[in-house]
Write a structure and sequence with these properties.
- The complex is a heterodimer of chains A (114) and B (114).
- In chain A, strands 2, 4, 5, 6, 9, 10 and 11 form a seven-stranded mixed β-sheet that branches. Chain A has a four-stranded antiparallel β-sheet with strand order 1-3-8-7, with no helix packed on it.
- By secondary structure, chain A is mainly β.
- Helices cover 0% and strands 56% of the residues of chain A.
- With 114 residues, chain B is an all-beta fold.
- In chain B, strands 2, 5, 6, 10, 11 and 12 form a six-stranded mixed β-sheet that branches.
- Chain B starts with a strand and ends with a strand.
- Classes of the chains: A mainly beta (114), B mainly beta (114).
- The interface between A and B is medium-sized, with 19 and 26 residues.
Chain lengths: 114, 114
């Protein structure tokens, strides 16, 4: 079962709100990723977690705060976002990182910041 | 620098016909992996096919096959017997280097005409 789930599917938030995106996988993968995707563009890597430790932060603004509570869960905490942060946020997982393993993507959370 | 180029922003094909999407890449690594991902409108990014650079044999998955030319750094995707459900954005990607980040092309939007 190659399934990565994400909640919520859609999120609308004001610039002063605090919200969280959630991602879950039950494939036993030890690497999880957050990507940001603008319309008709490829995904942009934000964070990589390997064995629940943050391994890559692609110079993401501090208003995005990732958290990996256990090997199956990945959260992205959002605070004081800007309208330009509106995008599709994708979670992915792979067996290991770094490595040649395929990344499997969730359906994404479509975020609108007003 | 590692790059991926998809020279066809948009393509169309008649249902039941064959279409080839092009992808070229640049890397100085000898050990890398190549991927084609499909993202239907407002739907999940899914893996179509994967190729290990050390394998000479072209990967095949049902109606999807690749033409991998390592010396030319070319990795095209052929879709046979195109179906309406094949309409999507197709992204070519490779991972190489120590951190194995996915390097993405800009995508090719494929329309399938009935």
């Amino acid at each position: 079962d190659t399934e990565v789930t994400q909640t919520p599917k859609h999120l609308v938030m004001g610039m002063t709100n605090k919200k969280s995106l959630k991602c879950e996988q039950h494939m036993g993968h030890r690497a999880m990723y957050w990507y940001k995707q603008k319309a008709k563009k490829p995904p942009e890597l934000m964070f990589v977690y390997s064995y629940e430790k943050l391994s890559i932060n692609e110079s993401v603004p501090s208003r995005f705060s990732p958290e990996c509570p256990n090997s199956s869960l990945l959260n992205l905490h959002l605070h004081a976002l800007q309208p330009e942060d509106s995008a599709l946020y994708l979670c992915a997982s792979s067996q290991f990182w770094p490595g040649p393993e395929t990344q499997y993507f969730g359906p994404g959370t479509r975020l609108l910041v007003l | 620098a590692q790059t991926v180029t998809q020279s066809q922003p948009e393509m169309s094909v008649q249902e039941a016909e064959t279409v080839t999407l092009s992808c070229t890449y640049d890397t100085s690594e000898s050990d890398y992996y190549l991927f084609w991902y499909k993202q239907p409108p407002s739907r999940q990014m899914i893996l179509v096919i994967r190729q290990e650079a050390y394998k000479q044999q072209n990967a095949t998955e049902n109606r999807f096959s690749v033409n991998f030319q390592k010396a030319a750094k070319s990795f095209s995707l052929k879709i046979s017997d195109s179906q309406l459900g094949d309409a999507a954005m197709y992204f070519c990607a490779h991972n190489a280097g120590n951190n194995r980040k996915l390097i993405w092309g800009l995508g090719t939007s494929l329309a399938v005409n009935p």
